[in-house]
Specification:
The chain has a seven-stranded antiparallel beta sheet, covered by helices on one side. The N and C termini lie far apart (about 110 Å). By secondary structure, it is an alpha+beta fold. The chain contains three helices and seven strands. The chain has one domain.
């Protein structure tokens, strides 16, 4: 009987050792899995941030290039909001602007009396600003929903933008400035 007790005791220690070994293996496997999931989440979030910012700037750049005809692109306002205004022909214009957290697009007739909220929401962003950098470059600054900013210069080959201050300071008329461009 004493021999049976020793065998049983030894058998219990073997089982406990295997159980502890199994628990350590399980804990390690779950830890590695959690690290992989967190790493994957970080990559996805980073890619999504870049994707939204790039999508917004790429969209604006592509629309400007599509409408790059003499005098068809301007920075204007729709309903008091700054927008890039592009001539679609036959009195229609395409406006790209920022409203209520979104990059917006609106195609409308010039005298239709539409407001900015008629536009289509394209991409969620925090802010959007446009400015003429020079006579043939529009500077676009997009602020992503995360706060990250991206500045892109878009070349307008056919731009006929005349800055009255430039014409006056160089002693040129607006017509002479237009001919130089």
């Amino acid at each position: 009987m004493a021999m049976n007790k020793n065998r049983l005791k030894k058998h219990n220690i073997d089982i406990m050792f295997l159980m502890i070994l199994f628990l350590i293996f399980t804990f390690s496997a779950v830890s590695v899995l959690l690290l992989a999931v967190n790493s994957y989440k970080a990559v996805v979030v980073s890619n999504e941030k870049n994707s939204n910012t790039r999508a917004a700037t790429a969209y604006i750049r592509e629309k400007v290039r599509q409408h790059d005809k003499s005098g068809s692109i301007d920075i204007s306002q729709i309903d008091g909001i700054e927008a890039i205004k592009m001539d679609e022909g036959e009195g229609y214009y395409l406006y790209i602007y920022y409203l209520d957290g979104y990059l917006m697009e609106l195609e409308a007739k010039d005298d239709a009396g539409v407001t900015a909220d008629f536009g289509n929401q394209l991409i969620k962003i925090n802010n959007l600003e446009f400015s003429w950098k020079n006579t043939q470059l529009i500077e676009v600054e997009v602020e992503e929903a995360t706060g990250e900013k991206r500045v892109v210069d878009i070349g307008v080959k056919s731009a006929l933008y005349i800055d009255d201050n430039t014409a006056d300071s160089e002693g040129l008329t607006e017509e002479e400035v237009a001919n130089e461009n």
